């Protein structure tokens, strides 16, 4: 993504923010627009995507950042066993015990 590209703010459509500043602006503008922030949901695939709560499921199904998550299992160096580790949206690892993934639903 071009860091100079302008992106409309989901909290105030009059705000046009450079892509390089967008994450910082989202935090600040969300704090300054608490009422609007309560109406929006965050995409589980890209935290920069803020959509009306009633449109979240549609957004998730069409999000361009939606990638098939990977499941792993195996042994740890110390000898313990990993029953399931989920590479959640290629950004974080969750040790699966009794968790629900926002993109996939219940995983275990």
From TrEMBL:
<feature type="domain" description="CHHC U11-48K-type">
    <location>
        <begin position="40"/>
        <end position="67"/>
    </location>
</feature>
<dbReference type="InterPro" id="IPR051591">
    <property type="entry name" value="UPF0224_FAM112_RNA_Proc"/>
</dbReference>
<dbReference type="Pfam" id="PF05253">
    <property type="entry name" value="zf-U11-48K"/>
</dbReference>
<dbReference type="GO" id="GO:0008270">
    <property type="term" value="F:zinc ion binding"/>
</dbReference>
<keyword id="KW-0862">Zinc</keyword>
<protein>
    <recommendedName>
        <fullName>CHHC U11-48K-type domain-containing protein</fullName>
    </recommendedName>
</protein>
<keyword id="KW-0479">Metal-binding</keyword>
<feature type="domain" description="CHHC U11-48K-type">
    <location>
        <begin position="6"/>
        <end position="33"/>
    </location>
</feature>
<dbReference type="InterPro" id="IPR022776">
    <property type="entry name" value="TRM13/UPF0224_CHHC_Znf_dom"/>
</dbReference>
<dbReference type="InterPro" id="IPR036236">
    <property type="entry name" value="Znf_C2H2_sf"/>
</dbReference>
<keyword id="KW-0863">Zinc-finger</keyword>
């Amino acid at each position: 993504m071009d860091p100079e590209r302008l992106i409309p703010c989901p909290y105030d459509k009059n705000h046009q923010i450079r892509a390089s500043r967008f994450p910082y602006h989202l935090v600040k503008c969300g704090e300054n627009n608490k009422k609007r922030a309560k109406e929006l949901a965050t995409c589980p695939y890209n935290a920069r995507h803020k959509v009306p709560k009633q449109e979240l499921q549609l957004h998730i199904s069409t999000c361009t950042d939606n990638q098939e998550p990977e499941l792993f299992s195996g042994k740890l160096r110390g000898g313990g066993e990993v029953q399931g580790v989920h590479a959640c949206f290629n950004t974080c690892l969750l040790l699966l015990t009794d968790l629900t993934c926002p993109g996939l639903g219940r995983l275990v």
